[in-house]
Specification:
302 residues; alpha/beta; Cobalt-precorrin-4 Transmethylase, domain 1; Rossmann fold; 3 domains; 5-stranded parallel sheet; 40% helix; binds iron/sulfur cluster
Length: 302
Amino acid sequence: MGKIVYYLSPSSFCFGVKRSIDQLNEIVASHPNEKIFCIHALVHNPKVTKQFEEIWISFAEDMNKVKDHDAIIIFSAHGTNRKIIEEAKWKYKAVYNLECPFVTKIYTEVDNFLQKWISKFLYIGKEHHQEGKNVIEYIRYTWGEVFVCEAQDQLQNIPYAHDEKFAVLSQTTLNFTYVENIINDIVQQFPHAQLPLLSDVCKATYERQTVVVENLDKFETFIVIGGKESNNTKELYRIGTENNKKSFYGESLDDILNYSEEVLFAHDTVAITWGASTPIEDIKAVFEYYKNHGYEAKILEL
Ligand code: SF4
């Protein structure tokens, strides 16, 4: 068998990222010459952020830093605490919430549980990631109680009683299997824990992880391309390292070229995958790089 580079499909922008980018482009077109501020990066890819900066969109982490009340405020794909969105509607000329519908699902779940008088939550996710941070803030804003669990060994610290009712939610971009395992543990310990009807891990994350996991036996080197802040990209990389693949993570080909050819070409089978907010040109560049070094291209898909 010769040298093979596998292109793992699906790739490039997921549904939610593409939708947010398309919507922001439409807003720019419909508000010529107006000041537009996006609160946080629209999606976690620096190239996408730079492309929007080039068409005069400004980015701010804190909405209150935007002093111009004639500005148009955009909320990112990661979702935003509803209190902040309501405040923005009072303060600014126009407000657009471009969050992914899979994230909206989680806010809807919070509201539905609250309507059923369930105000205690267990959130499986990362407290400092934009999506998790905002969901947690929203629960607290509604006077709910939330215990955040980032790892299975934290389950022993759950502050709720064995027979108490609390709702379980998770971040959309975590490792699907990892979330399933945590939920199974919770259900065994807490028979009254309330689960969403469908997993909160989104379809795009699930599919990208599954195509890697199902093909682990086909490759030795694993390359992941995506933004350093992108959680779904980090989770893909983690699958590689946990399965003892020689794994590399970069935002583009330039980052990958920081490694020596000796390590990049150490194996005859290479698989390349990408986060859900990675532009297609960054994907093609890495793939072409391997093809130009004698690797035969093959596609692996679900
Ligand atoms: S990764 Fe999932 S949750 Fe995030 S934008 Fe894409 S579809 Fe939505």
